[in-house]
Design goal:
The protein is of the alpha/beta class and about 450 residues long. The protein is about 20% helix and about 20% strand. The chain has nine helices and 15 strands. The strands form three sheets. The protein has a seven-stranded parallel beta sheet.
Length: about 450
């Protein structure tokens, strides 16, 4: 991304020293979609987590998706999402203004949503049969959107992992610690045979893991991003993170990898809650529209479009991307409520994307809301509706060429003001303040003011 410093003074933009060779597109991408889905969506329950008998969603509606292992996996035999339409999903992503989409090729419960020679437990052996991941990749790529694949490191259905059983409940600490881990010694599950693989089992599981990753990275064209998960269950050494990264990069040198490949990630992934302090370097906030990741009919407590647009703005103003999740229904159709929300976000993006995509955070700008910048333009996001006027300070006021309301293009009047004793000392390019009468609301969830500079 071009540095704002080429146009504005050093105090104005916050440059980034972080590089992602081959993955530069990710920095400043702004907005992406996450897709959580597998056979359990036929049951209208969260994916994977009911298998271990617990929910991981803070503040959920109080109804735990707790079923037996047998019940959870039973819908694999009948999974037939006849309403699945990859093109419709891709067009929705395009309409929403997403720059990349991440699809769950295999979640923790082990069901492969792609054709694989390394497991019989997947879509290939379902009544549906078609390769859903291939259809997703081709449709997303046809819309000019970057392709991301989610892949869980654990597999709670694989006999060599080993497979999760009812006797393994309660799922401890979200962590099956290594034998040498101090957290392991002395715990009630320390001697449980289901907690650890034998060396022979682990070697077979590692071969399975690499085999499936090889298929994903060899059979589907360019994969722009790999989104790993479940890393907490083993150590960096056990996963052989460095070896996995080397293997991945040998197949797709430019793929961007998240931080859940322990010690080997390119960017950080805070989840659900906005981080108190923005991470250093590239990052992404993954978040649900409602309370759950996958389709659940009772998940009706959804965030408003205004709330989600505000989060997108806040993330972009701190140098990150927002990865917003949707969950198709068990029959493959899209959740109508989520479609409506994404359509409304897309309407905002139609007129405001330039303020959150391809921008940098700012530094030294005194404004009561989040701001972003690109060469020649500063964007002020009115997440708090001004009553009388908008004031921004600490900018090179002598180089302002115009101020506009981004939604309509309307040129806004403004006044320039200086502290009298600082004006002469500032020389030919003084910093000062701009006073803008509060513009009429455009009807957009959040209005944006653009200040253009010579």
């Amino acid at each position: 991304m071009e540095s704002t410093l080429a146009v504005l003074p050093d105090s104005f933009a916050r440059p980034s020293d972080f590089q992602l060779p081959g993955g530069e597109w990710f920095i400043g991408a702004g907005f992406g979609l996450f897709v959580h889905w597998d056979h359990a969506s036929q049951q209208g329950i969260e994916i994977s987590w009911p298998l271990v008998g617990r929910s991981i969603i803070p503040g959920s509606d109080g109804v735990e998706d707790t079923v037996s292992v047998e019940q959870y996996q039973s819908s694999a035999a009948t999974f037939d999402p006849v309403e699945w339409d990859a093109v419709a999903l891709a067009r929705l992503a395009k309409r929403a203004g997403a720059r990349y989409v991440v699809f769950t090729a295999r979640h923790h419960a082990g069901y492969s949503m792609f054709h694989t020679e390394h497991s019989d437990f997947g879509i290939e052996n379902s009544p549906f049969g078609r390769d859903i991941t291939r259809e997703f990749v081709e449709a997303i790529r046809a819309e000019g959107i970057r392709v991301g694949i989610y892949y869980s490191l654990p597999d709670w259905n694989h006999p060599d992992y080993p497979a999760f059983e009812m006797s393994d409940r309660p799922y401890p600490l979200e962590h099956w610690p290594s034998a040498g881990d101090p957290a392991y010694a002395g715990t009630p599950v320390a001697d449980d045979k289901h907690r650890r693989s034998t060396p022979e089992q682990w070697a077979r599981f590692q071969a399975y893991l690499r085999g499936q990753l090889t298929e994903i990275l060899s059979n589907y064209g360019t994969i722009d991003l790999l989104w790993f998960d479940g890393e907490w269950e083993r150590s960096e050494d056990e996963w052989d993170s460095a070896g996995l990264r080397a293997h991945i990069k040998s197949l797709q040198p430019d793929v961007v990898i998240n931080d859940r490949l322990l010690g080997q990630g390119d960017y950080k992934t805070p989840e659900q809650g906005f981080p108190v302090t923005a991470p250093e370097g590239p990052w992404e906030l993954c978040m649900t529209i409602g309370q759950m990741w996958a389709w659940r009919p009772g998940d009706t407590k959804s965030k408003s479009t205004t709330s989600l647009v505000t989060t997108l703005i806040e993330v972009a103003s701190r140098g990150g991307n927002l990865l917003l999740n949707i969950g198709p229904k068990g029959d493959g159709s899209l959740n109508e409520s989520q479609v409506d929300t994404l359509t409304e976000i897309g309407e905002w993006m139609d007129r405001h994307a330039e303020s959150v995509v391809g921008v940098t955070p700012t530094a030294g700008v005194d404004f009561y809301g989040p701001s972003t910048a690109r060469p020649g333009t500063l964007y002020l996001h009115l997440v708090m509706r001004p009553i009388e006027q908008v004031i921004v300070r600490g900018i090179p006021v002598g180089r302002v060429t115009g101020i506009r309301l981004l939604a309509t293009g309307e040129q806004l009047p403004y006044e320039i003001n200086f502290e009298v004793h600082e004006q002469s000392a500032a020389g030919e390019d003084p910093l000062g303040e701009i006073l803008i009468p509060a513009p009429r609301a455009s009807g957009a969830p959040i209005d944006v003011i653009a200040i253009d500079f010579a």
